[in-house]
Amino acid sequence: MKFDRNRPFNNLPSLPPGADVESKPVLRQAVAASRALAELKGMAETSPNQALLVNALMLQEAKAGSEIDGVFATNGALFMTLGANAGRVAPATEEVLRYRAALWEGYSTLGKHPVLSIDLFIAIVRTIMNNKTGIRTTPGAIIKNGSGEKAVYTPPEGGKIIRDKLKNLEEFIHAEDGLDPLIKTALIQYQFEAIHPFPDGNGRAGRIITILFLIHSGLLNVPALCLSKAIVKRKDDYYRLLRRVAGKNRWKPWILFMLAAVEETAAFARERFLLVRDLMQETEERARRELPSRVYSKELIELLFRRPYCKIAFLVDAGIASRNIASDYLNELARINIVRKEKIGRETVYLNDRLYELLSK
After folding, report:
1. Cα 361-54-42 angle, rounded to 5 deg
2. Sign of the CA dihedral 183, 185, 187, 190?
3. pLDDT tens digit sequence for 202-234
4. Using CA atoms, how far apart are residues 177 and 121, in angstroms rounded to an integer?
5. How many CB atoms sit inside 10 A of residue 312's CB?
6. Structural domains in the chain plus CATH codes
7. How many CB atoms lie within 10 A of CB 305?
8. Which helix (H) or strand (E) segment is 310 a member of?
9. How far apart are CA 30 and CA 104, in angstroms?
10. 206: three-class secondary structure by DSSP
11. Helix 251-290 to helix 24-46 angle, to the nearest 10 degrees?
């Protein structure tokens, strides 16, 4: 049956595709993306502040990934919510933080049970949407253009059909088929988007599954890839190329797009690791020179780099100082402008401005 954007794509072909997906240009781009991932992986493994960067990059992935689906939150609101009792959280901020939570839960689950399964897909989308959603069973799902005037794609419908296609996707993910894992990444991303298995949250869930597959394949060790950052910049191309696969079986442009996105965001993440490492060393040297010896400690500086917003309770919980002494320490840091003191509601927080600026770029 010929593809018709107005009819459910129930004959969506199974994976792997019948087309040649390993042409010379694709393989060349796969090598470049693989090299960038290897450099990022090596940097992440040796970085003394890995947790900070992973958390920050996960947050940026959540922010960009949510923007693709029309959910917008500011960096300030996100970091503040994580670092202070910010009171009522805006719905968009809460939604982005749920994306981050879903990515973290998926990564944690994969560490215990290394299987990317339908059950894991469901768990991811339930965390994103904060409900008990399941496989889509109600007919009528239509993806429309930006103005909402006409259909650009109608995904498969029917609970059994969708489950069968997800089962094929799960089997493809774990198949020992000799395909380059980065090329498989692009195929998996497309297929999940094309199946569109849930009533909502499909794009975000699909991008999380893509990152988890890179970890499952050994190309990454932690979810430090802000893949959505590259996609959100070329959102129109992203959707146009997805539709060309469905309508014209044009795999090559789509795969090249995804491989370039992986290469670009891997280089971005590696650069962030280097910049934060250098900033932390610079801050440590300055604090050693300018702070009283009773205040300075390596543990204190490391704490300032776990998140941009710090507060007295963090020092107390880390066993660095009692509450009164912790306040003195943070005020000394503010005195020499390593942090900036700020009042948020009833709470006083200390913002590491340079770290915040670096992580927000």
Report:
1. 105
2. negative
3. 999 999 999 999 999 999 999 988 899 899 999
4. 22
5. 22
6. 24-267 (1.10.3290.10), 291-360 (1.10.10.10)
7. 21
8. strand 309-310
9. 26
10. helix
11. 20
